[in-house]
Design a protein that fits this description.
The chain contains 19 helices and 2 strands. By secondary structure, it is an all-alpha fold. The longest helix has 30 residues.
């Protein structure tokens, strides 16, 4: 696959104590890759505790109250909950390319988790969500920690403002973690470019999501672009690409992994949109209809609106116009929207698109790595889980025909015109 094994060396101050450059607790060495393989999440959490212990030490030197009230909350939020999908994708992306850059991969995985903390904290502020992972959202907790009611004007302003700072701190810590990770010159250049692109794409996706809410809906193509930037790119494609860069993978391998990751990530988002409307709250762990209530311009709703317009279905358009963005959404309203999405064929269309994206992700993965080898097999299972496919029942992974990727990382399903029933 054109890989090379880079030589590790530090770009930090050589006089600086080792525990300040790489964490004060033990993290697995390169010889421990097989141990990490057996439980990536456990190894990641051990590394995260070491990294965050250093961050907390720095915070308490700045100010004790800042450390106790804000910095520790960010650290705890990062360590608690979540599936650790991004670090796992990074790890198995690297391992499937035949590398064992254990310490660097785990530290970069922690950095990805900190970026995710930033995104979730800010997202809850923007969506005015009160709960996250079954606990008060950070802006709610910060207001209550200060002895304020999060429902009062003073408490709301303080909580949201402090949460913005908490998210900013998580992003700063993520950048610091990347900067202090031991990398070769080539690795630092490649990973640095990916890291910069990922952060910008994450913000762009969030902005497009916000804009779609206030503009009354996006086009089908714009809704898909938002899903790509907000979810697929930074959640799947970029972590895989960072793992490939850490392994020194060649261009074709990296491009195929990026394509697989992007398609799997969009398939995940489309299935998540479907679950948000049609899923059972007892199984999904979140109430149905939140996207509709918040007025989010998901691909599912955009397809429903376009199909209703094409059919001249005024009743369906009236339902979507009346209900989307309604804070007082009732079960009857939600049933009406479900009916529209069924009758217009939007639900079936999105399900088919998600399946095609999954199949393409599997094909491209087979072109990038050996899916019968240890690392490739693990990555295949992970991408199948992300994209909603049934491991072992998807399109044959060894196929090499018809990649049709266009630009690096693109999917043919995305490139296709979204008019009519195409795509």
């Amino acid at each position: 696959m054109g890989r090379r094994q880079p030589t590790e060396h530090s770009f930090g101050d050589p006089s600086r104590p080792a525990h300040k450059r790489g964490g004060s607790h033990h993290t697995p060495s390169c010889e421990d890759a097989r141990v990490v393989d057996s439980d990536v999440v456990d190894a990641l959490l051990r590394t995260a505790r070491a990294v965050l212990a250093d961050r907390i030490d720095e915070a308490v030197r700045s100010d004790a109250s800042f450390c106790e009230e804000l910095a520790r909350r960010v650290a705890d939020f990062t360590l608690e909950g979540g599936k650790r999908m991004r670090p796992r994708l990074l790890w198995w992306g690297m391992r499937s390319c035949g590398a064992s850059e254990t310490a660097a991969a785990l530290r970069l995985g922690v950095a990805l988790e900190l970026v995710q903390s930033c995104a979730l904290i800010h997202d809850d502020v923007m969506d005015r969500s009160r709960l996250r992972r079954g606990k008060p959202a950070v802006h709610i907790g910060l207001a209550e920690r200060a002895g304020l009611s999060p429902d009062s004007e003073r408490g709301s302003v303080f909580g949201t403002s402090a949460a913005v700072l908490a998210g900013d701190l998580a992003l700063v810590w993520a950048d610091d973690t990347v900067a202090e990770t031991v990398l070769s010159t080539v690795q630092r250049r490649r990973i640095g470019a990916l890291w910069r692109a990922m952060r910008t794409e994450m913000v762009a996706g969030q902005y497009l999501d916000l804009r779609g809410q206030v503009s009354g809906g996006s086009s089908v193509a714009q809704a898909l672009r938002t899903a790509c930037l907000k979810s697929a790119s930074y959640s799947v494609e970029r972590p895989l690409a960072i793992g490939a860069a850490l392994a020194g993978a060649d261009g074709p391998t990296t491009d195929a992994l990026r394509s697989a990751g992007r398609c799997a990530g969009i398939a995940f988002q489309l299935r998540d949109d479907l679950l948000g409307v049609f899923g059972d709250p007892a199984l999904t762990g979140k109430p149905s209809g939140d996207d509709i209530r918040e007025g989010k311009s998901t691909y599912l709703l955009a397809v429903g609106r376009r199909r209703a317009e094409a059919a001249g279905d005024r009743r369906a358009l009236a339902v979507l116009g009346r209900v989307t963005g309604s804070a007082d959404l009732t079960e009857e309203d939600l049933a009406d929207v479900r009916g529209v999405l069924e009758v217009t064929g939007a639900r079936a269309h999105v399900e088919r698109k998600a399946e095609r994206l999954h199949d393409h992700a599997v094909r491209r993965l087979g072109q990038a790595v050996d899916v019968d080898a240890h690392g490739g097999r693990q990555l295949f299972g992970l991408l199948s889980a992300v994209s909603g496919g049934r491991t072992g029942h998807a399109t044959t992974v060894g196929e090499t025909h018809g990649s049709g990727t266009g630009a690096a990382g693109a999917c043919p399903v995305l490139i296709a015109t979204e008019g009519g029933h195409a795509g």
